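look at this fold:
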Amino acid sequence: ELGEAICKAMGETCVWTPIAWDGIIPALNAKKIDAIFASMSITEKRMKVINFSNKYYNTPAAIVGPKDSKIDGSPESVKGKIVGVQVSTTHADYAKKHFADMAGEVKTYQAFDEHNNDLVAGRVDAVVGDSLAFADFLSKDAGKCCEIKGYLNDEAVFGKGVGVGMRKDDAELLAKFNAAIEKVRADGTYEKIAKKYFDFDIYGK
């Protein structure tokens, strides 16, 4: 919905193309798509290969586990545990950096729903991901077993928020996206959309 509003603010008609997460940057650079609007965090690592617009939201990462679990997000609390993450994400990078030495295993999954399903089934002890993405899972019957056990912070890993990814040489498109994001923020469109779904400031600090 926000993507459509930004496209409208740019005066463009956007075609939404589903692509597997671990192939999304290669698809961009191969010119199969022109921009990534898929909750991709702006990180130094990614900025070496693509450009990003200014952020369009910034929600914290979280670790989710069973309600009776003693896991709290500290490396010590996952000692000997199996922690699930989605492959090629900043959350996977965080788990490898902060949990790999203590956890029994950092297990990777192709899709976000897959590690959630294994959490419910008891095949992993905790999962790491975006708190916003977890909100939907935890609000449904399948997620009643679990809760956010802690929020995770590391700007070096997570970057400064979520932006639109573009090829390095698309300076004109980058300027258009930045102007459009600023426009929907200024004219109230952003706030109107956000209030339909969230009771907190999704844009972040």
Observations:
- The mean pLDDT is 96.
- Strands lie at 51-52, 61-66, 82-86, 105-109, 126-130, 146-152, 165-166.
- The radius of gyration is 18 Å.
- The CA atoms of residues 38 and 164 lie 8 Å apart.
